[in-house]
Structures are given as C-alpha cells and as structure tokens.
Amino acid sequence: MTCFLLSVTNSCNKACAYCVVKQWRNNPEYPDKIAAIDVIKFLGKEMKAGDTVELTGGEPTLFTGLLLLLEWLREHNARVIMRTNGCKLDSWRKEFPNMVIVLAKHDSSDEYIEQKRAFLLPHDIVQTELDIVPPDSTEPKFRTNDTSPLGKHGYTKAFFVTADGNLRFMPCVNVSMGNIINSDYSLEPWSCLAMNSCPYMLGAWNLAARMEKWSR
User: Taking each helix axis from N to C terminus, what angle separates 36-46 and 66-75, rounded to the nearest 10 degrees?
Assistant: First the structure.
C-alpha cells in the first residue's frame, strides 16, 4: 500500500512562527505550479484503490481545484487525509466521507474552531496544539499527536509532491525523482530502512484507520 503526501500549495492565510514550510510559504520565489489536473493525471497512473492521499500545504483549502481533486479521489476509492486550519472549510466537507480532516487550531480563537466544528464528521480531529520536539532531538520537528494505539503501519511506499510538482520518495528524502507536471519522473525502486518506524507514516495509517472504523 502506498501513501502519497501532496503539498498542493505554498499559500497560507496564516504566518505561524513554527511552520515547517515557512521558507516557501507565500514566497513569490516559490509560486504554486501544479494544478488539480496534474495531480489527477499523476495519481491516475500511480495510485491504487485503498491507497492514502494526504493533502497539506500551505493551506490546502486555498488550492484552486481542491473540490475537483476531492471528487476524483472519492470516485477512485482513495483514503484521504487533509491537514487544514479550516480557512475555507464549509458544508462541502460532508460530501467526502472518505476523508479525515485534522483541523489545526494554530493561533485561531476558540470561537473560530467551534464554528468550524459544525462542518466536521465524527472521525475528524481538532488538533489544539502541536508537540514541538526540542531542537537537539533526532526526532522529526513535530510530533503531531494524532496517532491512535496502532503501533505499526502497512505502507510499503510513500511519495511526496511539492507545489512546484517536484517528486520525492518520502518527505525526508531530498532527492528529486522528477516532476509530475510534464510526467518527467521515474518511480525507481527506492527503499527506506526507517519506513517501518516512521512517525509520519504511522500517523497517516492511524488517521485512515479512524475513518474506516467510523464508516463501518
């Protein structure tokens, strides 16, 4: 099973100091280049039913063509995760029961979060704070605290696409495998010894499990 992590936009309506992508966020030197049709074309070749697609950014609800992409993912039986501050979260969310949302509070008010709760489904999560790991730690910068008691995941591959279409194997592997916009990429048989213990993959697996448990 494969996990696709898609950073669909560098745009964001917030400027959190601890943002892991603040180098690229709202930076004109790093404009968004991928469109929904580019993502659909890529996933149409590489994704299988039951795979996980995680949407992030920037703020993914600001991605032009988001609903088109979500509709395609629903029709193709993908398990979808979206991490959002809820900027444009609205009643459309309930049309996609194949998706679990992690609504991050960041610096939003309690009143704002309560307003956005009205659009969530029972398996969605409101993340009130991030557990920031000390800078001298060898762990990833954030522990997102959205894992359930499941202690292992079932992903054998993971691919990361940035807002300019660049494709990498795993978010932490800074080696380009090409670009999805012009289909100039090669999914070589990469392997990662740390994948079985990767907190990002475990978090995605547990989120998908929440959604499936709710849907039964």
Answer: 20
195-200 long-range Cβ contacts below 8 angstroms, 24+ apart: 195/155, 195/156, 195/158, 195/170, 196/152, 196/153, 198/153, 198/158, 198/170, 199/139, 199/140, 199/143, 199/144, 199/147, 200/5, 200/140, 200/158, 200/171
Asked if residues 204 and 81 have their Cβ atoms less than 8 Å apart, the reply is yes
pLDDT of residue 9: 96
What does the pLDDT read at residue 51?
95
Radius of gyration of the chain (CA): 16
Q: What is the pLDDT of residues 139-167, one digit of tens each?
A: 545 455 555 567 788 998 999 999 999 99
What is the distance of C-alpha 126 from the center of its chain? 15
The string of DSSP codes covering 47-71 is --TT-EEEEESS-GGGSTTHHHHHH
Residues of the chain with pLDDT under 50: 140, 142, 216
Q: Which helix H or strand E contains 166, and what residues bound it?
A: strand 166-169
Listed by start position, the domains of the chain span 2-215
User: According to the model, what pLDDT value does residue 147 have?
Assistant: 54
Q: How confident is the model at residue 89, as a pLDDT?
A: 97
Model pLDDT, residue 59 = 96
Q: How far is 95 from 185, CA to CA, in rounded Å?
A: 33
Cβ(40)–Cβ(89) under 8 Å? Answer: no
Q: What is the CATH number of domain 2-215?
A: 3.20.20.70
